[in-house]
């Protein structure tokens, strides 16, 4: 299976529409790949909070239209990164969500995922966007993928839920800051090892709202070996990997079978 991770920069001097068209052209160039992955909020920039409301769109808005056409022309599965989605919540109130789109080779939107873990510590994304509530997987012809976004990478319980739901390849669309790049690499490898799954983590390049992006998109195999890693600038990272290795790894080293679920809470002894 061949995957292409498109490490995109959201340059504030480039209009959002121009970037959509440029990225669509890059997607078309990946004809022959099985899966193409884009970063988080590549239209606006993951830290460009002031642009969220003005650039918000419906699921089938301009980003979907551009990516749908590109996926269809390239004949690829496209994990199109995330958009600022404008939608009504359960109460009918209009909210913004950080939502990823998965399109099939016909350009059909087959799965979405609203980011569950919002970053910001009571500011930024954490207050501007609603939280997703449902983990998401999708079956591709050769592997089942788990859909995740950036800050999710710090929460292993989400990835275990995805693994229990059948995920063999864990995909991460991110806008990860350079100052915590060591964590990015470490966590990508940890999620791969603990779930005995592939991790395909696509980050952003450049500077978003004065925040330097880490880049260094990475592909990790079920043993934690780094198969490919990008640099810090814009780059297309392409890699061949064998989805059958997941089942082989889990059979050779069946650690997942030794989990003990439903443990009691730890006892507390007062000093």
TrEMBL record:
- Give the InterPro entries listed for this entry: C-N_Hydrolase, C-N_Hydrolase_sf, UPF0012_CS
TM helices/strands, residue ranges? none
Molecular-function GO term, any one: hydrolase activity
Tell me if GTP-binding is a UniProt keyword of this record.
Answer: no
Highest taxon listed in the record's lineage: Bacteria
- Domain CN hydrolase stretches: 1-243
Keywords, A to Z, come to:
Hydrolase
Using the record for this protein, list the coiled-coil segments as residue ranges, or answer none. none
**Recorded family membership:** Belongs to the carbon-nitrogen hydrolase superfamily. NIT1/NIT2 family.
| Designated name of the protein | Carbon-nitrogen family hydrolase
């Amino acid at each position: 299976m061949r995957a292409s991770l498109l490490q995109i920069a959201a340059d504030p001097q480039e209009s959002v529409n121009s970037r959509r068209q440029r990225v669509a052209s890059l997607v078309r160039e990946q004809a022959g790949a099985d899966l193409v992955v884009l970063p988080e909020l590549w239209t606006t920039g993951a830290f460009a909070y002031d642009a969220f409301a003005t650039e918000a769109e419906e699921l089938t808005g301009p980003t979907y239209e551009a990516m749908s056409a590109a996926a269809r022309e390239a004949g690829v599965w496209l994990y199109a990164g995330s958009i600022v989605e404008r939608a009504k919540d359960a109460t009918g109130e209009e909210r913004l969500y950080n939502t990823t789109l998965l399109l099939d080779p016909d350009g059909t939107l087959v799965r979405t995922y609203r980011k569950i873990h919002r970053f910001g510590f009571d500011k930024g994304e954490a207050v501007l966007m609603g939280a997703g509530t449902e983990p998401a997987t999708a079956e591709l012809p050769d592997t089942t993928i788990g859909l995740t976004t950036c800050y999710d990478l710090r929460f292993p319980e989400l990835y275990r839920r995805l693994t229990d739901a059948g995920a063999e390849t864990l995909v991460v669309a991110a806008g990860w800051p350079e100052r915590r790049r060591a964590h990015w690499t470490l966590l990508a490898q940890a999620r791969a090892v603990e779930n005995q799954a592939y991790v395909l983590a696509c980050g952003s390049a450049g500077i978003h709202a004065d925040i330097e992006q880490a880049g260094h998109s990475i592909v990790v195999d079920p043993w934690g070996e780094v198969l490919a890693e990008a640099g810090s600038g814009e780059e297309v990272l392409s890699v061949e990997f064998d989805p059958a290795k997941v089942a082989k790894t889990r059979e050779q080293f069946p650690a997942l079978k030794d989990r003990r679920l439903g443990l009691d809470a730890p006892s507390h002894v007062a000093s």
